[in-house]
Design brief:
Blueprint: E1 3-5, E2 8-20, E3 26-38, E4 40-46, E5 52-57, H1 67-79, E6 85-92, H2 102-118, H3 124-134, H4 138-143, E7 147-152, E8 156-159, E9 166-171, H5 178-188, H6 203-209, H7 212-224, E10 229-230, E11 237-241, H8 244-257, H9 259-262, E12 266-270, E13 279-281
Parallel strand pairs: 5-6
Antiparallel strand pairs: 1-4, 2-3, 3-7, 4-6, 7-8, 9-11, 9-12, 10-11, 12-13
Bound molecules: cytidine-5'-monophosphate.
Residues 25-26, 28, 135-137, 153-154, 178-179, 182 line the site of cytidine-5'-monophosphate (C5P).
């Protein structure tokens, strides 16, 4: 039997870097919000020798080293018994390496689906532990909370009440590695300025690596009259809207009236819940 999951994207409504840890990671405090843009992950047990992953949809997603395969392998290792190989299909709709947590969300869904395929049930504590070993953003997705306050490296997740009706997500074709942004954050030290963005402490580091980001953000703010923030370590920028209709209207007018600014970006107008964006470009 083939099992299907719809791993959602997230945005960081705010992100504070609390400090640097001895293991090189950073202690964070961040409000995560799940958003209605999802990948599709399918899994079934097979007679095959090894787990097999095929990826369709948006480009830029590696097969080797993919967190979905790492998740399946980690669940198998925890089980400690011989388990059938898995045939896995991943259809990518969440832009990769964008600050939207797509890879981490796929990983969390893979932890769930692998257990379901094999008839296993890890305890919630074991799941969080396993999730944290795979990536800092994975525990949030494993909890299934719509919104949460996330602390530590990412392993402390507490459900939060957040009222956001709709958002525009705008992903420019800019490559920003999370590790590089955190390294630049450390290099900048106090010179980066604490939280000059007002919402995301990684903004000075991201913009120091990518000077096109502040220009883009200013242009978006001027065009829409609303505030734009960066999600995670970027490069995705997002804005909050009081209704999905308002978000779709602004997304449309960005594409129609400001093609020079947003023409090469991926744009999604989404509500926090649900699976598919109300509107997307291209
Ligand atoms: O855990 P994850 O693989 O997503 O992290 C990617 C990189 O981001 C890490 O190698 C580390 O450099 C940085 N990071 C960090 N502190 C965090 C999360 C990520 O320094 N809390």
């Amino acid at each position: 039997m083939t099992l299907t999951a719809r791993p959602p994207a997230k945005v960081n409504l705010d992100l504070t870097v609390v400090g640097r840890r001895d293991d090189g990671f950073h202690e964070l405090l961040s409000t995560f919000l799940r958003v209605g843009l999802t990948d599709v992950l399918k899994m079934r047990a097979t007679e095959g020798e090894a787990d097999r992953l095929t990826v369709t949809g948006l480009p830029g997603v590696p097969i080797r080293g993919n967190l979905v395969l790492a998740a399946v392998e980690a669940v198998r290792a925890r089980a400690g018994v011989s388990l059938p190989a898995l045939e896995i299909e991943l259809d990518k709709r969440i832009p990769a390496a964008a600050g939207l947590g797509g890879g981490s969300s796929d990983c969390a869904s893979a932890i769930e689906l692998a257990q379901a395929c094999w008839g296993l049930a890890l305890s919630p504590a074991d799941e969080i532990d396993l999730a944290a070993s795979l990536g800092s953003d994975v525990p949030f997705f494993v909890t299934g909370h719509g919104a949460a306050t996330v602390a530590g490296r990412g392993e402390r997740v507490a459900r939060a009440d957040v009222s956001v009706a709709a958002l525009i997500l705008l992903t420019p074709p800019i490559e920003l590695s999370t590790a590089a942004v955190f390294a630049r954050y450390d290099d900048l030290g106090a010179a980066g300025g604490p939280d000059v963005d007002g919402a995301n402490d990684l903004w000075p580091a991201a913009t120091s690596l990518e000077p096109r980001l502040p220009e883009l953000r200013s242009a978006l703010a001027a065009a829409t009259g609303v505030e734009w923030r960066m999600s995670g370590s970027g490069p995705t920028l997002f804005a909050l809207y009081p209704s999905i209709e308002a978000a779709v209207a602004d997304a449309r007018s960005l594409v129609n009236e400001h093609p020079a600014t947003v023409g090469d970006c991926l744009i999604h107008a989404v509500e926090p819940d649900g699976e598919d964006p109300a509107w997307r470009f291209p």
